[in-house]
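Renewal narrative, Specific Aim 1. Our central claim is that a sequence can be written position by position from structural information alone. The example that follows is taken directly from our test logs and has not been curated for this report. It begins with the structure tokens describing the chain, in the order in which they were read.
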């Protein structure tokens, strides 16, 4: 039996108004910090909304998620799923950014698969612009 079970937190939030930040810098920092804490996951950012999965030892995820919840770069955080898991969905990524402009990317594929377990509306919201059939005129 594991001393510290694996926890996976899956959440959605809105970017703060006027957010002017280099998303690649956020991901680079997350990769560095998550790697030290044994956390893996994926982040989707479409310029307005964040969707993120954090997974790893429960105590590490607790501490990381506590920081995430107080980060002023986003608001309206909604937890979609918070559960103990037997294995990781994103085991090889300390943090990976999903690029909505490149839907064939492995990170997008894995995130799509993960979202299919939840509401079809949520899946559609995040991937409406990544296929011709869902694309809306801007």
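The sequence written for that structure reads:
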């Amino acid at each position: 039996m594991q001393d510290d079970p694996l926890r996976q937190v899956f959440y959605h939030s809105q970017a703060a108004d006027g957010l002017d930040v280099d998303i690649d810098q956020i991901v680079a920092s997350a990769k560095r910090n998550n790697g030290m804490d044994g956390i893996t996951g994926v982040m989707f950012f479409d310029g307005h909304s964040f969707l993120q999965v954090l997974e790893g030892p429960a105590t590490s995820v607790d501490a990381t998620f506590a920081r995430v919840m107080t980060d002023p770069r986003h608001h309206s955080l909604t937890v979609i799923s918070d559960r103990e898991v037997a294995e990781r969905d994103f085991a090889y990524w300390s943090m990976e950014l999903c690029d909505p402009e490149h839907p064939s990317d492995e990170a997008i594929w894995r995130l799509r698969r993960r979202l299919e377990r939840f509401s079809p509306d949520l899946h559609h919201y995040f991937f409406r612009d990544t296929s011709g059939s869902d694309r809306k005129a801007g």
